[in-house]
């Protein structure tokens, strides 16, 4: 038995070493290979996590500033078990960070604690359970404001534009619900696939996991802070290796679609190996358990530690809810969602709309098969999503814009 365990561990190490060889490129490498400049920055949170940020200060053509001109700043935040890589995989022609840099923006991409670029700490080892004792609450209330304030400090600007995708929408909603005044540091806000209320999630594997990990128990407590980076490394190695085979690629797409939305014709098949080399990009099990709690309770609230844990943490038997009605940005928020998104379903976006109202802008993709991943890596992501986001940001900043018609969206996002 011991020999079998040793062999399994050795096999896992070989696979992990293989995927590391395939993925030696970090986000800056993926940016500079296309001729764009890139800077890597780090910032340390108040509780000791060392987070990586990537900056594209200029576009392909340079976009040098005229004398006295201030370049507007935009900050992007990634999805669950993702990293800054998710925004640059599609390359310079279609990728949102590249397009923004070419349009004259100072582009920053963040990373949350625990992902492959943010696994350092001033005192904790990433192989300790203590390192992984965090949920969406810590990412939202510590990581996100720390990174945003760092970017503002480096650029010398009082406010920035924000683009969040999936978990990047969740964490901003938590931050602004609990600390409404932080909205003063933001200009335009664009939220892609908003994963905030999750009562109608349709992903079969996610629903199965939520049954077992969406309610506090001794089992969830055991797994919550278990170091899992080797397991995720093994998943990346196996999936990326197998899915490079063209005969297997379609099966890989079908498996991915069980999470994100069935039968999307927009999935860029050529990106599958690259996507699977970089995703899942590690994270805390407690992080995913927090999402499962949203699903099982149909509530948007702080992490549930169970009665005793909640009393110790919050002074109440239940975790406090996050009230999205507290969110009031200077400009209306642009929400982007779709009918075939299994992880951020339109029914839940409609509920969010019922709470936040018509002040904000709700952009419902008119293509019936557009799914969760399509908001960043679809074959038509440039024409459907990114052209519109860039144009709206240009218009907000009072800069020349193309006048994109944004025809990808339904004229009436909700049935009245």
TrEMBL record:
PANTHER family: LYSOSOMAL ACID LIPASE-RELATED. Pfam families: Abhydro_lipase (PF04083). GO terms for biological process: lipid catabolic process. Residues 1-21 form the signal peptide. Residues 29-89 form the Partial AB-hydrolase lipase domain. This is Lipase. Keywords: Glycoprotein, Hydrolase, Lipid degradation, Lipid metabolism, Signal. SUPFAM superfamilies: alpha/beta-Hydrolases. GO terms for molecular function: hydrolase activity, acting on ester bonds. Belongs to the AB hydrolase superfamily. Lipase family. It comes from the Eukaryota. The active site is at residues 166, 341, 372. Coiled coil: none annotated.
């Amino acid at each position: 038995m011991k020999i079998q365990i040793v062999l399994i561990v050795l096999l896992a190490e070989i696979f992990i070493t293989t995927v590391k060889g395939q993925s030696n490129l970090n986000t800056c490498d993926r940016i500079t290979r296309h001729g764009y400049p890139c800077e890597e920055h780090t910032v340390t949170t108040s509780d000791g996590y060392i987070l990586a940020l990537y900056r594209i200060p200029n576009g392909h053509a340079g976009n040098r500033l005229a004398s006295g001109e201030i370049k507007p700043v935009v900050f992007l935040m990634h999805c669950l078990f993702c990293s800054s890589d998710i925004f640059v995989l599609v390359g310079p022609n279609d990728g949102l960070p590249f397009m923004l840099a070419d349009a004259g923006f100072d582009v920053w991409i963040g990373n949350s604690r625990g992902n492959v670029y943010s696994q350092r700490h001033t005192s904790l080892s990433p192989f300790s359970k203590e390192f992984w004792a965090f949920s969406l609450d810590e990412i939202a209330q510590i990581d996100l404001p720390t990174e945003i304030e760092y970017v503002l400090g480096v650029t010398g600007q009082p406010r920035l534009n924000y683009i969040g995708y999936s978990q990047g929408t969740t964490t901003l909603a938590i931050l602004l619900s609990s600390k409404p005044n932080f909205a003063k540091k933001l200009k335009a806000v664009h939220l892609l696939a908003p994963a905030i209320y999750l009562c109608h999630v349709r992903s079969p594997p996610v629903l199965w996991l939520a049954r077992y990990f969406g309610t506090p128990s001794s089992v969830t407590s055991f797994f919550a802070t278990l170091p899992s980076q080797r397991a995720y490394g093994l998943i990346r190695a196996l999936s990326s290796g197998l899915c490079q085979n063209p005969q297997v690629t379609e099966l890989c797409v079908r498996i991915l679609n069980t999470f994100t939305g069935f039968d999307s014709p927009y999935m860029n098949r050529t990106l599958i190996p690259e996507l699977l080399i970089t995703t899942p990009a590690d994270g805390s099990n407690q992080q995913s358990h927090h999402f499962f709690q949203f699903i099982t309770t149909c509530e948007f609230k702080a992490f549930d530690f169970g009665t005793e844990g909640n009393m110790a943490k919050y002074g109440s038997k239940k975790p406090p809810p996050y009230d999205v009605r507290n969110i009031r940005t200077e400009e209306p928020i642009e929400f982007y969602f779709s009918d075939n998104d299994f992880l951020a379903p339109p029914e839940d976006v409609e509920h969010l709309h019922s709470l936040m109202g018509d002040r904000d802008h709700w952009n419902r993709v008119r293509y019936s098969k557009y799914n969760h991943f399509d908001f960043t890596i679809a074959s038509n992501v440039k024409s459907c999503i990114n052209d519109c986001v860039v144009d709206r940001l240009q218009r907000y900043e009072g800069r020349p814009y193309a006048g994109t018609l944004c025809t990808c969206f339904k004229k009436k996002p909700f049935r009245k």
